Amino acid sequence: MTSYPVRFRDPVHGFIHLSPAELKLVGTRAFRRLRNIKQLALTYLVYPGAMHTRFEHSLGVMELATRAFDAVCRGSHEKLTENFKKMGMGLDEAKTLLRATALLHDVGHLPFSHAGEGLLPKKANGKPTTHEEVSIAIIRGEEISAILNSEFYPGIAAHITLLLGETTEGLPPELLILKKLISGQFDADRMDYLSRDSLHCGVGYGNFDYLRLLETLQAKDSSEGGLELSAERGGVHTLEAMVLARYWMFTQVYCHKTRRIYDIYLSRYLDAWSGNRFQSPLDVMNEDDLSVMYAMIQDADSGTGERQRYARRILNRDHHRVVYETDHHADIKARKIAIEVERKLRQRFPDCDFILDREARGTIHKFYVKGDEEAGDEFPIFDTVSKKYSALSEESGIFQTIPKTFHVIRIYGDVPKKSLPAYRESAAQIAKELKEAV
Q1: Residues 6 or more apart in contact with residue 3 via CB below 8 angstroms
Q2: Position 65 confidence tier, pLDDT thresholds 50, 70, 90
Q3: Among 139, 190, 144, 142, which Cα is nearest to 162's?
């Protein structure tokens, strides 16, 4: 049985315990760097408490993944034992793999987390490199792989990189359930960041009873081979609450109108600042929020062009204001109207700088919805009385009404607050005329 004598005090989960081997991972340069990568980029300019980092989030994901694994063991001990036995792996070894993967899953984040991902070089197929791929490259690097090989079991680094991959290609089916615990519809990553972001932003939107959810998790034979997650019927309400929490956090925090304009400034600043800094994934190790903020302070004072312009916007908290926005579920028609509204506003107010934001979007869930033409995931629900399984879509009406996606389109104008009503009235009138003409 693995011992976890080292402990960190966490504001969300209480004490988080680590083994001496895991502490060595935390002590690596790659993991220490996460102390200087904010979880929510510049959100602290809107919610002042949002200063938390990928460091504590990674510890939290490890903690919740462990609790989830232990809960599944209690409800499906025999199934799990037989499953991992096929790989010559005991439950302790599987748990060790899960914890190490959860701990290292975010080591590849760029400065200011997702805001910097566009700086990575494109892959051979033209697609952008993801932070997960950077994490895999860092894990394969000398520092972390050496610790994994010497302090954990042989071959664990290869297993971790398979679990962090975008697809299940090459993943042994016996490890599928571990992947679901880290990157599924109801995974430890989402459970932690919803709770953690809610706490540090000082809002209640992301709170839900994740402890109850963990208690209802079980393992079920998967059609893909191996095992998949399921939940007892008593956990359906907590599954619903988690998806609702995600929806509310998108509307109130992740796509907050002021947060979004600072995301845009930051993205434009990073594009101008980055130059040739990121030629390979491992170059990410050389930068963090502190190095970018130092450059930003210098640029605000003596920089030129876009670097100075957006550095000053951010540091002086001098932002554009919303003059037009769609509802939270913008369709193609709404997008076309917003684009045309911005074009006409530029004609009407040629001296005003407008910014069209079409990227305030996110996936709320991917579950099957009755009547929806698009395919969706199902999640098995277990009835402890009848001992039979049903589908989540059959047990919950909530998923039929929660939108799968969130998407709001906004037009920002560089206008003083006192002039805002006039600009908004003009935008609304243009939109009305366009809708009537359709």
Answers
A1: 19
A2: very high
A3: 139
Q: Report the SS3 class of residue 275.
A: coil
Give the single-character DSSP code of 127.
Answer: P
From first CA to last CA, the distance across the chain in angstroms is 68
Joined together, the tokens standing for residue 259 give 């947060």
Delineate the domains of the chain, giving CATH numbers in brackets.
Answer: 6-257 (1.10.3210.10)
Residues 6+ apart with CB under 8 A from 284: 108, 109, 110, 120, 134, 138, 278
What distance in Å separates the CA atoms of residue 282 and residue 135, rounded to the nearest whole number?
A: 9
d(CA 67, CA 344): 55
Strand ranges (DSSP E) for 233-388? 321-325, 354-363, 380-382
In this predicted model, what pLDDT tens digit does every residue of 9-59 receive, in sequence order? 999 999 999 999 999 999 999 999 999 999 999 999 999 999 999 999 999
Residue pointed to by tokens 């079920």: 220
Which position has the token pair 């953690």? Answer: 196
